[in-house]
Amino acid sequence: MLPDLEQIQARYQEPSGQTDKVAAARYLLKFAGPLFPVRTRVFEAVNRYCRILDDLVDESPSVAPVREVILTERKGLLSDRPHTELQKQYLDPVLTALGEDQGKALNRHMFRLFGGFLVDLDVKKEQRPLSAAQLKTRNFLHCWSAVAAFSLIWSGIQPIPVRDSVSLMNAWGSYDNLADLQEDLTHGLILVSREEVDNFNLQFKDGENLPADQLRGYYQRKRRIISVELNRCSGSVFKVGLPAWLAFCYFAYFQTRRLKLLGPLVMDDGAKFPASRDVRTL
């Protein structure tokens, strides 16, 4: 069973979307949109396309059909395969503006981004958290692919990661995971490492309430760690070969994420972790 795709698509009819997840898009559009109208249209279309699939992965109660969707979309991104209906709707009308070489490079970055979607689906299927090392790899794959894709759209340049890029992408991925903590858990997606599950005694049992008090304690501890890492590593965006204006947009975005972590975790004490049969339904 799939979520209502049309309902998900409706969230992103406006250029900036309707959720905090597209804050980075709003930030870039505010500063760069008026200067680069063609690249703005490309960015809006690619951002919508990726966000729709990301929400599909996060919210689906069934793993197998969504996995087929993601695999099909990945195949459609390869140059020797026909495009899917979603790609015809969102990508085909705009990618020609980038030229053939940049269009193919952008597709490769999205292909890797969708690899992160497949990791999340595996976590949902098994309802078993990744190790800290695996989660760090997942965060880098997911976030660096997005940075590389968006940088290519805006500047025509593909950034080259430096040492602190890994830590920065892990901090950004951890921020996203923390911001969506309750929402993801109610859909059976555990983006907390196995070590953190043990350290904070986070027990996720089929069909039972989420451990609200333990999650609040985890949130308080984790947000301090993420804030320090974002502050320490966000300057690395000036070292990856991007134009100064674009690097500054990323830097400002990562710094503002630290402010988003100042508030407390708002938890619904009645929220439940789904039963495994609900997530694994074929």
What does this molecule look like?
Helices cover 66% and strands 0% of the residues. The protein contains 14 helices and no strands. Helix 8 packs across helix 9 (163-179). The N and C termini lie close together (8 Å).
In short:
With 282 residues, the protein is mainly alpha-helical. Helices cover 66% and strands 0% of the residues.
Mean pLDDT: 86
Q: Could you give the order of the helices and strands?
A: HHHHHHHHHHHHHH
The 3D shape can be described as globular
Kindly state the percentage of residues in helix.
55-70%
**Regarding quaternary structure, how should these chains be classified?**
single chain
Terminal Cα separation, in Å?
Answer: 8 Å
Secondary structure category? mainly alpha
Major β-sheet, in short? none
Number of beta strands: 0
Q: Return Rg in Å.
A: 19 Å
Segments where pLDDT lies below 50 for 5+ residues? 15-21, 278-282
Indicate the proportion of strand residues: under 5%
Count of helical stretches: 14
List the helices and strands and how they pair.
Blueprint lengths: L4 H6 L12 H10 L4 H23 L3 H14 L8 H6 L1 H4 L4 H27 L5 H24 L7 H17 L1 H6 L7 H6 L12 H22 L10 H17 L15 H5 L2
Helix pairs in contact: 2-13, 3-7, 4-7, 7-8, 8-9, 9-12, 12-13
Comma- or semicolon-separated keywords:
single chain, 282 residues, 14 helices, 66% helix, 0% strand, disordered C terminus
